[in-house]
Amino acid sequence: QVQLVESGGGLVQAGGSLKLSCAASGGIFAIYSMGWYRQAPGQQREMVATITNGGMTDYGSSVKGRFTISGDNANNTVFLEMNGLKPEDTAVYYCYTKFQGLWIYEKWGQGTQVTVSS
Description:
Blueprint (H helix, E strand, L loop, with lengths): L2 E5 L2 E4 L4 E8 L4 E10 L6 E7 L4 E3 L7 E6 L4 E6 L8 E10 L3 E5 L3 E6 L1
Parallel strand pairs: 2-11
Antiparallel strand pairs: 1-3, 3-8, 4-5, 4-9, 5-6, 7-8, 9-10, 9-11
Protein backbone atom coordinates (compact mmCIF):
# COMPACT_ATOMS: atom_id res chain seq x y z
CA GLN A 1 0.00 0.00 0.00
CA VAL A 2 1.54 3.28 -1.13
CA GLN A 3 1.58 6.06 1.42
CA LEU A 4 2.38 9.75 1.14
CA VAL A 5 3.44 11.39 4.39
CA GLU A 6 3.38 15.18 4.36
CA SER A 7 4.89 17.55 6.88
CA GLY A 8 5.86 21.16 7.31
CA GLY A 9 2.58 23.07 7.21
CA GLY A 10 1.66 25.66 9.77
CA LEU A 11 0.98 29.29 10.51
CA VAL A 12 3.31 32.02 9.30
CA GLN A 13 3.16 35.77 8.89
CA ALA A 14 3.05 37.38 5.48
CA GLY A 15 6.51 37.56 3.99
CA GLY A 16 7.65 34.50 5.90
CA SER A 17 8.78 31.09 4.74
CA LEU A 18 7.78 27.48 5.16
CA LYS A 19 9.14 24.23 3.77
CA LEU A 20 6.87 21.29 3.03
CA SER A 21 8.07 17.75 2.56
CA CYS A 22 6.35 14.64 1.28
CA ALA A 23 7.76 11.13 1.41
CA ALA A 24 6.33 8.28 -0.63
CA SER A 25 6.65 4.70 0.49
CA GLY A 26 5.12 1.32 -0.26
CA GLY A 27 4.91 -0.70 -3.45
CA ILE A 28 6.62 1.73 -5.76
CA PHE A 29 8.87 0.54 -8.56
CA ALA A 30 9.51 4.00 -9.95
CA ILE A 31 8.17 7.50 -9.54
CA TYR A 32 7.38 9.46 -12.67
CA SER A 33 6.54 12.74 -11.01
CA MET A 34 5.69 14.32 -7.68
CA GLY A 35 4.22 17.65 -6.87
CA TRP A 36 2.09 19.92 -4.77
CA TYR A 37 -1.42 21.17 -5.32
CA ARG A 38 -3.47 23.40 -3.07
CA GLN A 39 -7.09 24.11 -2.39
CA ALA A 40 -8.47 27.13 -0.57
CA PRO A 41 -12.01 27.16 0.84
CA GLY A 42 -14.57 27.57 -1.93
CA GLN A 43 -11.96 27.28 -4.66
CA GLN A 44 -10.84 24.57 -7.03
CA ARG A 45 -7.67 22.63 -6.44
CA GLU A 46 -4.79 24.20 -8.34
CA MET A 47 -1.30 23.09 -9.26
CA VAL A 48 1.44 24.72 -7.23
CA ALA A 49 4.54 22.93 -8.49
CA THR A 50 5.56 19.61 -9.99
CA ILE A 51 8.83 17.85 -10.64
CA THR A 52 9.59 14.81 -12.79
CA ASN A 53 12.06 12.07 -11.95
CA GLY A 54 14.37 13.73 -14.47
CA GLY A 55 14.24 17.01 -12.58
CA MET A 56 11.97 19.00 -14.88
CA THR A 57 9.87 21.45 -12.90
CA ASP A 58 6.68 23.38 -13.50
CA TYR A 59 5.09 26.08 -11.37
CA GLY A 60 1.74 27.73 -11.09
CA SER A 61 1.85 31.33 -12.24
CA SER A 62 0.96 32.70 -8.81
CA VAL A 63 3.98 31.11 -7.10
CA LYS A 64 6.70 31.49 -9.73
CA GLY A 65 9.75 33.17 -8.30
CA ARG A 66 8.64 32.58 -4.71
CA PHE A 67 8.35 28.79 -4.40
CA THR A 68 10.95 26.17 -5.25
CA ILE A 69 10.27 22.46 -5.67
CA SER A 70 13.02 19.87 -5.33
CA GLY A 71 13.22 16.12 -5.12
CA ASP A 72 15.25 13.38 -3.49
CA ASN A 73 14.88 10.46 -5.88
CA ALA A 74 16.74 8.03 -3.64
CA ASN A 75 14.19 8.54 -0.89
CA ASN A 76 11.09 9.21 -2.99
CA THR A 77 10.72 12.58 -1.31
CA VAL A 78 9.68 15.95 -2.63
CA PHE A 79 10.13 19.33 -0.99
CA LEU A 80 8.44 22.66 -1.49
CA GLU A 81 10.27 25.70 -0.22
CA MET A 82 7.88 28.63 0.04
CA ASN A 83 9.26 32.13 0.44
CA GLY A 84 7.56 35.50 0.40
CA LEU A 85 4.31 33.96 1.55
CA LYS A 86 1.13 35.95 1.06
CA PRO A 87 -2.28 35.61 2.71
CA GLU A 88 -3.63 34.33 -0.61
CA ASP A 89 -1.29 31.34 -0.30
CA THR A 90 -3.46 30.11 2.57
CA ALA A 91 -4.81 26.71 1.62
CA VAL A 92 -4.58 23.00 2.24
CA TYR A 93 -1.56 21.74 0.35
CA TYR A 94 -1.72 18.24 -1.11
CA CYS A 95 1.19 16.11 -2.16
CA TYR A 96 0.73 14.17 -5.40
CA THR A 97 2.64 11.42 -7.11
CA LYS A 98 2.38 9.42 -10.32
CA PHE A 99 4.23 6.16 -10.01
CA GLN A 100 4.80 2.70 -11.40
CA GLY A 101 3.54 -0.17 -9.33
CA LEU A 102 1.88 -3.15 -10.94
CA TRP A 103 0.32 -0.51 -13.18
CA ILE A 104 0.70 3.27 -13.34
CA TYR A 105 -1.06 4.94 -10.45
CA GLU A 106 -1.73 8.36 -9.00
CA LYS A 107 -1.82 9.03 -5.28
CA TRP A 108 -2.74 12.03 -3.16
CA GLY A 109 -1.61 12.83 0.36
CA GLN A 110 -3.97 13.75 3.14
CA GLY A 111 -3.12 17.43 2.94
CA THR A 112 -1.36 19.87 5.23
CA GLN A 113 -2.70 23.28 6.19
CA VAL A 114 -0.72 26.40 5.39
CA THR A 115 -2.05 29.62 6.88
CA VAL A 116 -0.50 32.99 6.15
CA SER A 117 -1.58 35.86 8.36
CA SER A 118 -1.52 39.46 7.22
